[in-house]
Amino acid sequence: MTTENIRVAAIDLGTNSFHMIIVEESKEKGIVEIDRVKDMICIGRGSISTKMLDDDAMQSGIAALKNFLVLASQHGVAPENMIAFATSAIREAKNRCDFLSRIRDETGLKVKIISGKEEAEFIYYGVRNAVKIGKTADLLFDIGGGSVEFVVVNHKGVQLLESRKIGVARMRERFVTTEPISLHEIKMLEQFFAAEMVSAVEKASELKVTRAIASSGTAQNIARMIRSMNGRESDVSLNNSTFTRKEFQALYKAVIPLDAADRRKMTGLDEKRVDLILPGLILVDMIFRLFKVEEILISDSALREGMVLHYLKHRYSSPKSLDNDVALDIRRESVNELGFRCHWDRDHAEYIARLSLHLFDKLSLLHHLEAPYRELLEYASLLHNIGAFISISSHHKHSQYIVLNGELRGFSPSEIEIIGHVVRYHRKSSPSEKHTAYNILKPTHKRAVDVLSGILRLANGLERGHRQNIQNINVEVKGSAITLRLKTLFEPDIEIWAADLLKTWLETVLQKTIAIEPSPAS
To answer: Strands of 6-13's sheet, edge to edge?
Structure first.
């Protein structure tokens, strides 16, 4: 590690589980996850009604924290960069000071208890670093064991920060006594949830919220179960994936009538959430109904990531400002960070991107792709060569693998798939139905991959000499022929030669012949 790189361990002492995330921040690579670990301590077990933390749970928690700190130290985190926050269950316990004193005496770790509003704020920081907040208003919610945080945000920033005591462990302890859960208990939960969400529902209605974004283990587990029901377990990442109200209702109707033994058999359900999933499902059902949203988007970043971002900003004046909502472009940041992690040739990548976008714009009347695909072409162009980090041989395939598994932030799984395929086909073989991953794409996504990969192949040929020779391209379309006239700094023989070799696929896609020639001397 250089002196510019900072490693931080953030520990979240939650009602159900203790989590730790270890990250490294550098100016160019941004924030890179080094490790993460979770231990289902259930510190809130029984304490929600008694307001007293169980002694055995406290001892288990301290043992887990000792292991966390050893792991953080092995990863090179300095003691002063180990931060820990406690939430709902510990916040409300009468013996919380005793527990925190024991932690400090036995581990040296200073744990800060945060308020519900602070928790909601950290969650917002974390979510917006993983999900692109839209131009219209969004509802963010995080389902914890003791509390649920609600954030309403629009293009002007945060409009509501709220924490409600309706977490899944709390609700199960208070309302659920039967197996399978009775209709009466479902109604009680629904009424309680509705009463607690009134102010958030009103604010969301006032701002015309159209989308909900969910974080936390419960929401992710629901998303995984829906994937399992739909046969999509192989999808790479949950982040930015969505499930619709219809998909959720199918899961809800399948799970609610089951007892614990039958729920335990369900694919995708975390064994330690067998009991907690019931109030979680009922809560999400009420969110769909009361907020009148039709789909929920999953964020895999929340409280811990928000803690890290807040800490870095205030302690080290991190350049990634949390206060400027409008300027935050997590998609571009994420692409650049992935490029730096793979030691990319940034100048070359950015030049290829400019050529690609120029061709996209000049050929728009032929390909008819809309602006969102233009953005994906730019990002694919920026990342097309990152696979050379692994090996020059087959680097297009390595680039695709890195894109698919690089945890790009702010992109939906389908957008990442498109970028990955465009990168894959920037050289060598063109898209083919024989390629399984390409073959299962939606027809509209196949068409986009065909066009974008054709453009990127051509742009890649036009920069074959790595000398940024092409200054402008004049595009002329007559009948079935396209003529590209190149304005260059030097004789473009090598660029024309390489582009001629790579133009065939775009000719096939556009059903035109392409001729490439120098612009006539002025």
So the answer is: 30-39, 18-26, 6-13, 82-86, 111-113
